[in-house]
User: Fold these one by one.
Assistant:
Number 1:
Amino acid sequence: MICAVASGKGGTGKTTVTAGLAAVWDRPFTAVDLDVEEPNLHLFLHPDIESEVPAMMEVPVLDAERCTSCGQCAAFCRYKALAFMGGHLLVFSDMCHGCGGCLALCPEGALSPGERELGQVLAGSFEASAAVGRARFLMGRLRVGEAMSPPLMRQVKTKLPRRPTKADPDVLIDSPPGVSCPAVNAVMDADCVVLVTEPTPFGLHDLKLAVEAFRPLGMPLGVVVNRAGVGGTDIQGYCAGVGVPVWAEIPFSRAIAGAYARGEVPARVAPEAESAALTLMKAVRAAVAGSREADHA
Amino acid sequence: MREIVVISGKGGTGKTSVTAGFAHLAARRAMICDLDVDAPDLHLLLSPDRAETHEFRSGVAAVIDPGLCANCGLCAGMCRFDAIAAGPRAHKVDALRCEGCGVCERFCPVGAVRLEEKLCGEWHVSATRMGPMVHAQLFPGEENSGRLVALLKKEARERAGKAGLPLMLCDGSPGIGCPVISSLSGADRVVIVTEPTPSGAHDLLRVADLCRHFRIPAAVLVNKFDLNPDGCAALEARCRELGLDSLGRLPHDEAVARAMADGLSVAELPETPVSRALREAWERLSALPDAARRSDPFHHKPSA
């Protein structure tokens, strides 16, 4: 089962919830940080990193001797990665999305495949629960200055089994904030999505955007209300109105905020956070089992 | 005109609350921009009137005509984004994965693929009680956020120029990717709002690195410093080592949540510890020289 933890608004507690699930999960699993722009899960899980591999994307390299300035490549490229200036072709590889169209088009073989570094893919393992022992850990880290996170996220995802089976581990994904292409990329292969929010006007507004973005994907969705008790915005009422279940609530407490600030996983040190993580785990499993039954029916 | 962009790396550190506070303190001399087009929240505090609404069209999506498709599979083999799947009679494009590159359309031997322009969102020009505002909403699940950010900045600059405003105040988005890089284009000064947590500190360093990469001077404001005073001191020491300017600290204050619930900036409420600290931060920011280090992040050097 792949469970993605997402949110519209940033800073609502995605990483806290993912790390909480990782602390109580009682079957083998892999924890994955797909928030490649600002990955934080490792700060709480403390994995031993066993490999760190640069992630490269194919971009065109020009052999100016062969280029006849026919212009087909620049006319084709939708990302303005190829342009003519003073009759000469220039390659702006930072703008390239790696579609390979120019390489296939050039009649002179003047463009050949080169590479741009997107960032790194890190893999390792960490001490999870007594029941699980060590669990696998994966993360992507975007190169500072690189604009495109989805290609790196795709490379991280290739390290996961395409369709986890009973023998294969579950996957817990920490997703990037927002509801645009990086967030959609993180959740689109998941069997269920946990939306973390907080009871403030910003939290509710961005939760609505997230429900709008992710519900059409078809997998079960549920909400975790973090810092319940502050702000006073009625998240429950909204969820009931649109038929999205609230799977768990994590009460606001200085103890939990303090634990997080010190880099501790609240579910490991605060009983109310641990019980919320257990409740969430059960709700996630029931929702995925329910949707599989519905698929078979 | 001075362009100030508020970013954070990590989400939820208080960018929007700080931007709204600064907008109030700018006393109607600023063009206000919400550049977080993905999950914008500034309008919840500023109640813009959306006097103008425009469509944002950008990019294309491929569509295969099942009646024309010969089911040869050439497109699926060439697609680098895994966006085309085989079907019993025809191939089909997965709109979520399609990046609109046009390879399938260009190479389809029977012309079964067409590219459709996408409506990705809308943008607005508004009046608010704190001055004019430009803002947008990318439709959920859409892409091209960087282009929408660039469009907003261009519109805001032109309108601020016409109105003779000396300032542009921009609320940015979390992360360090496409929309953030786009928001830094042409900026004179970045304000990084952070918090003294491991995530806040980690993400601050990456976003500070991004500012250095594009040679834009950055100043740091530590929010909710009292959640971890030791962590805050360590964070500030690290910022000094990196040569980042400091705007001070904001305390964790229930007044921020109260203001948000009332649709106000905390700077508009009667004096509280956080509004006082915010005003001091604004005075420091106003007095900081920006140094002539302007650069345009999207002004790339060609690699060949």
Note: The two ends of chain B are 35 Å apart (CA to CA).
Number 2:
Amino acid sequence: MNDTLSLLIGLAMGLNLLALGTSRLPVLIRAVAAQGVLLGLLPLVLEAHALDWRLILITLATVAGKGLLIPYMLIRAMRAAGIARELEPFIGYIPSLLLGAGGTIAAVALIRYLPLLPEHAGTLHVPGAMALILTGFILLIGRTKAISQVCGYLILENGIYLAGLLLIRSTPILVEFGILLDVTVGIFVIGIIVDRIQRAFDSLDTRKLTALHE
Amino acid sequence: MFIYIDILLRLALWLLLAPLLPGVINKVKAWVGGRQGPPVLQLYYDLARLWRKGVVVSTLASPGFIIAPAIAWTAVVAAALLLPLAGAGAALSFDGDVLLLVYLLALARFCTAWGAMETGSAFEGMGAAREVSFAVLAEIGIITAVLTLVVQSGSIALSSMFEPLPGPGAALLAVGLFIILLAENCRVPFDDPNTHLELTMIHEVMVLDHSGPPLAMILHGAAVKLMLFSVFLAQAVLPLSELPLLISLAALAGSVLLITVAVGLVESLTARLAFKRVPLLLTIGFLFCLFPLILTWMGDL
């Protein structure tokens, strides 16, 4: 079980770096979607000994929401805005890749000094969550296009979800269901906002939002 | 006495087999492109032809113009001889020979750049500047990969440091070393060996003014370097030294062939990167080598 878990989380951490290193928005959106699917499968791995229909339903809902619905809406917003590339990030691709890699390594190295439960200590679970949250922050801070920032927000949410899975035995998984619903509605709203920004400013560059506009 | 025969045999193996690899790459490219392509042995014919020709030396050039390719070729062949060959081990081995290997490759690069600058041509100076600046980034990757192997095996001698990592670490290291192999040997995403536009060339522009035997040495040295990196990659990833002698040699030859075909496929299916995107890909290659190092260093996580 731990091997599958570490493999899934390791792949998700690899997708982090893909998201940080690419300038193409479709690649970024697909990386975030694939990451959502990988993490959506985690409850099945974590609770493999006690599967029931509710768990499977929630896994299916997470995978469908993060892997199909949200990327579909983001790609639609991207097409509507007519942009496919992030051209002038605040933090360049190489610095953000190195920052992300440094953060990932620091997260893995620091796990030894955290007071974790014995069943979490030997896995990539906690460092994975920390790396995802950090990557989300780097994307949110470092990119100028609204869609990239939304992707950063999604990676951040993936990290929080991963951290939440630590408590899978003590919190009802319904809570995660509620969070997922919130995120979906959030992306829906952001999709509309992106469209409005595009119409009002003829650009998705969030730097222009600081200037007054008629 | 036996050791001399051993070294001579290895030398013959490296010198004779190396020009086969560029031929295989060109054949794969021709096959993907639906052409017949040059014969696999084309580089042998080219080398024989160049060896018989005279040398044209610019009036500006010092004797370094001829000496530099010779030193570069010797350094690459010496580096190749240091490398163990799967079950056969290394002919001569001492602690820290891996550092010698890295420095011999650096010496070869320095000499190629030196030979290019001797001509006094602006284009060749430009090519040398590009080659060296990309090499800085590629070398970080090589050193990280070497460090990974050193940490994994606890040895700094080439003959005993090829102890492949378990599972995902090996896969990551394979991808990272493959990216570095492409960069170090000036293959497609970094440089196009077939281009004829001086402004976009890197390696080829450095040898534009070379002719005759020095050019033959440069071409042969490039082939040996490609084989050296393929052998290094195969042994760093696959546990070849545990197999019986003949099987391990056959497996090594097979994986080198596989790597060569992969280079040919990459070359046929991708376009050369824009210059400003090259550092990004090299950084990715470096990260692919860095993560196995962290995995090894952290132990079993």
Note: The mean pLDDT of chain B is 89.
